[in-house]
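Worked Example 4.2. Consider the chain below.
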Amino acid sequence: TDGNNYIYLAQLVEHGKLLYRDIYLDNFPLMIYISVIYKWLTFGSMQLFNMTSTIEKAAISALIYYITYEKWKKHRTAFLVAVTYFLSYTVISSSFQMGFYTSNLFILIAYFLAQKKRLFWAGMFAAFAVLTKAYGLFPVLGLLVSICAVNGFKSYKFIVAGIVTGVLVMLPTLLWGFPQFIEQTFGFGLIRGAAESKLDFYLAFAEYDFLIFILCIWNFTLWKKNLFVAAGTAFLCVFFLFYRDIYYIYFSYFPLFAAL
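Applying the procedure from the previous section yields the following structure tokens:
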């Protein structure tokens, strides 16, 4: 699993190895750096390390509760929405630290900050989401569209913060492993074929998370009420339509948009 790889790669980074130059990685680097911190906090225990994913899910649920309560001012509604997210099949079926819920948490924080007009900080966390998992780019594009539509020229704060954060996080790679980064992340990541049938994953998602599936379809009616949710769902669907090598865990972004 990714969790096993992450804790191993974190150990290599601790010993001075550089991502991409010394270590093969076909994604952006932030999750490995976060894994170093998680490894320290969990004393190198694989079981505790993987539990960080559950903590992230709980944090996402708590923030969903808060956002929903601020919107509707009803505790029961907020609790129901948060529980629906936390108990969705896509969320509870994954017990390993794979970085997806780290990315989800960053996206939700970015959305929350954007709602509060903290665009610079929102841009920083949006960059964290993409740098944790490249697939986070598609929800972030939805957030960018909604921020530009609402804030106009002031959206530059979000964009500048995202670019600056990206450069700072990627700086070791840009200095010492850029050719290898391009080859490993884009050379392999974008051309690899499908390991399993995409249709099987689509059908499994519709069957096991039927409520989330229906809510995501409903999201396409929200272009005027919640542009982030509608655009983010649309960008994710484009990704799933054209990217060849997908897995069920990639659907982890959909419950978040269903809850919002």
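The chain has a mean pLDDT of 92. Residues 46-72 form the longest helix (27 residues). Compare this with Example 4.1 before moving on.
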